[in-house]
C-alpha cells in the first residue's frame, strides 16, 4: 500500500513542484477506500476479512492521505512569500488539511480505549469538515478530481443505505412482534437479551450493532458493538444474549438505568457480522478467558460440544480456564445452568469438556489455596493462579493438534503468548480474540493471581444444580497441589470394541467419524 503510493508519487515526476501537486491528487484518490459506510461489519463480511483487519487498513490509508495532504500543502510556503493566505482561495484548503491532521490524534488508541464514542463523533465531524472544504477547493480550481470526491461520498452513502435497508428488511418493524432488548445489571456487567426472527442465521463468534434511539439523544448517533454470547430458539423468535462491560458512554448509561429497574425497549439490530474461527481440525482446544471474555468464547464451546456429540469434529479435549472477577453467585443463574447443561450433553458422548474456574479469595483461610470439585469435570479454585504453568501443563497433556484461544486482559494475553508462541507451529496454534472485547485493566491493578477482595465472592463452593446426576452432587475439596488434579497421560478411552490410547488419537477419531457416516448394511440369506 505504501509502495503503491510512493510509486504513484514518483512515476514520471520531473520536479519537486510536480510531486507536490500530484500528492494532492493522490490524497483525493485515497479518500475513496476510506468511505466504508457507518459500519465496518458489512464491508468486512463482503471482503471476507476480520473487522479489526479492515479497521487497521482504514487507519493506515487515512495516515497516508494525511501525508499526501501535508506534502501538497507545502506548496503554500512559496506562495506565502508573494500572496496573502487570508483569502478563501487558500484559507479553505488549509482548513481541510488541518481537519484531516486532527483526525489522527483524536482517534489514537489511548483516546479510543477511554472515550470511544467521543473519538468517533470527533472523527465524523472532522471528516465532514475536511470533505466539504476539499470539495470547495476542487470546484474553485475546476479540478477533474472533484468527481473522485463525489464518487467517494456516493460510495459512503450507498454502503450506509445498504446496511440500514438490510436491517429494516430483516426485522420488518411494521409487522408484530417487534425486536426488543431487555437490559439487566448483574455483577458489574450489562446483560442484554434481544429477540430476533428465527430466519436470522447466527454463527459462533459473531457480533451485532444496536441502534437504540429511545435511550437518549446521544444514543441516536451511536452504534455500539455487542458480541453474541449465546442464543436460544423459541416457537416464533430467537433470544440472543450478550454481555458488555460498562464503559464511558452509552453502555455505562444503560448499566445505571438497568440498576434502577430492568428495562425493555425496541431496538434495530445491524448484523450479525463476522466470520467464525475454525476449530474442527484440533484434537485439544484450550480456552483461556477472563471475566467477560468467557462469554466471547461461549458460543464456540456450545457448538464444539454439539459437533463432538454428532461425531463431526476431531476434538477430544476441550478445557476452559476461566479467571473470574466475582464468585459463583455473582452471575445470573443461567450461566451455571448452561455449564451444567453442557456437561450433561457431553456426558453420553466423549466427555471432552472440563471447566477450571478461578475465583479470588476474600477471607483469611489456610495457607494453601482451596479447591472444590463440583462433579467430575467442574472445578472451582479459590486462590491464586499461575497462568504460564497452567497453559504449559495443558499443552504437555495434549491430544493431537492443539489450539489455544485467549480472550483476557493484556497481562494474561501476553503471558499466554509468551508460553505458546515459542512452540507454535502446524500442531500448535494460538488464537487471540478481538482485543476490544477483552477486559482492560489499569496499571494499578495486580496480576490475575492477586487476592484482592471482590464483591460477590465466597469461600464456600457453589451449591448443586437440580437435575444433576449423583456423581455431580459429590463435593470434594483438595489443596491445589494434590495429585488428584494431575491429568494422567496413560488414560485410555474405552469404546464398544476396543481401547485406544490417547496418543493414537487422530487415527482413532478419523476411524470413528468414518464409521458414523457409514450406512448400515443388512444381508438376507435364504434358507
Structural write-up:
With 527 residues, the protein is an alpha/beta fold. Helix content is 42%, strand content 19%. The protein has three domains: 2-168, Four Helix Bundle (Hemerythrin (Met), subunit A) (Up-down Bundle), CATH 1.20.120; 180-273, Elongation Factor Tu (Ef-tu), domain 3; 284-509, Rossmann fold, CATH 3.40.50. The protein is built from 17 helices and 17 strands. Strands 14-13-8-9-10-12-11-15 form an eight-stranded mixed beta sheet, sandwiched between helices. Strands 6-1-2-5-4-3-7 form a seven-stranded antiparallel beta sheet, with helices on both faces. Helix 1 packs across helix 2 (16-29) and helix 7 (88-106) runs antiparallel to helix 9. The protein is globular.
